[in-house]
Amino acid sequence: QVQLVESGGGLVQPGGSLRLSCAASGGILNIYTIAWYRQAPGKQRELVAAVTSAASTNYADSVKGRFTISRDNAKNTVYLQMNSLKPEDTAVYYCNAHRTFYSYWGQGTQVTVSS
Fold first, then answer.
1. Which pLDDT score is estimated for 79?
2. CA-CA distance, 25 to 89, in Å (whole number)?
3. Which of 3, 57, 51 lies closest to 28, judged by CA?
4. What is the DSSP string of 35-87?
5. Pairing mode of beta strands 18-25, 77-82
6. Rounded Cα gap, residues 9 and 91, in angstroms
7. pLDDT per residue over 27-70, tens digit each?
8. Can you give the pLDDT at residue 26?
9. Which of 54, 29, 41, 42 has the alpha carbon at shortest distance from 106?
10. Which of 32, 38, 52, 114 has a C-alpha 20 to 30 A away from that of 69?
11. Where are the alpha helices (DSSP H) in the chain?
């Protein structure tokens, strides 16, 4: 079983930046597709960004150009760099690791962009 722990959330002003981390234990992340999801109050959970084991990436249109997903295989950690944050980015952000027949979720970290 893979355990995922997100960190790095917090309160930030519009236009500010945060870097979220997803640290894994119990598995090697580079064999998984890693994705960041977010869920705002009253809304469905949505895919924000993903990086595959082949290092390809994709982003939601709403964050493209502002967010960057990356992985540090040596540290077994995936990051989400969030720049130019907007109030609509406010949500709980979740890390997910997926490969065929396996899916693991972290507990989430709150990101609040004020105003």
1. 97
2. 28
3. 3
4. EEEEE-TTS--EEEEEE-TT--EEE-TTTTTTEEEEEEGGGTEEEEEE-S--G
5. antiparallel
6. 10
7. 888 889 999 999 999 999 999 999 998 999 999 999 999 999 99
8. 87
9. 29
10. 114
11. none
Phi, psi of 58 (to 5 degrees): -145, 155
Cβ neighbors of 46 (< 8 A, separation 6 or more) are 37, 38, 39, 60
Check the CA dihedral 27-30-32-37 and report its sign. Answer: positive
Q: How far apart are CA 110 and CA 20, in angstroms?
A: 10
Cα(64)–Cα(25) distance, rounded to whole angstroms? 29
Instruction: State the Cα torsion 43-45-49-54 to the nearest 10°.
Output: -160
> Which pLDDT band holds residue 106 (cuts at 50, 70, 90)?
very high
Tokens 């964050």 correspond to 63
Single out the residue of 50, 102, 92, 46 nearest to residue 71, CA to CA: 50
**DSSP 3-state assignment of 44?**
coil
Tell me, rounded to whole angstroms, the distance of Cα 1 from its chain centroid: 19
Written as six digits, the tokens of 60 are 């939601």
Residue type, 56: S
Are the C-beta atoms of 49 and 64 separated by less than 8 Å?
no
